[in-house]
Structures are given as structure tokens and as C-alpha cells.
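cron nightly-structures :: item 1 of 1
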Amino acid sequence: AVGAIRAFKEHGYRVPDDVAFVGFDNTFLCESTDPSLTTINVPKQAMGRLAVERLVTIISGNSCAPIKTELLTSLIKRHSL
């Protein structure tokens, strides 16, 4: 999304007046772009921790049944929307 904002601006589009953007992952670039990028924040540390816990469970032989895990995300409103 950061690259798309840059490309659209280079071609004369006004962000967010002509085109709006929402990114995903809330990286450090989201605040540094002009305009700052509205994004979905993903709890990466929690996702990694759950993945490691699941892997340890499978390796230890305690379970190999498929499971569904959901983590909440949040919208970080900035100026690209």
C-alpha cells in the first residue's frame, strides 16, 4: 500500500481525495508515508507465540488434530482514508 500511494501520487492523484488506501500489518512505514497509511494492526507476537505453542504440542505427540485459532485485529486510522 505504501508503494501504491507513492505511485499514485507520482501520477498526479491526490491521496485520499482521489483514491484512498488501507494497508494490512501496521509496519513502521505506515506512519512515515505521506499521507500516513490507515492500516489493520495484526498482533504478530501473539500469532507467533500461538504458532510455537501449537508446534510444541504437535511435536510432543499430544495432539495433531486440526484447530482453528482466531486473533483480533484493529483498525489504525490515519490520513490515507
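cron nightly-structures :: done
The helical segments are 2-10, 29-32, 44-59.
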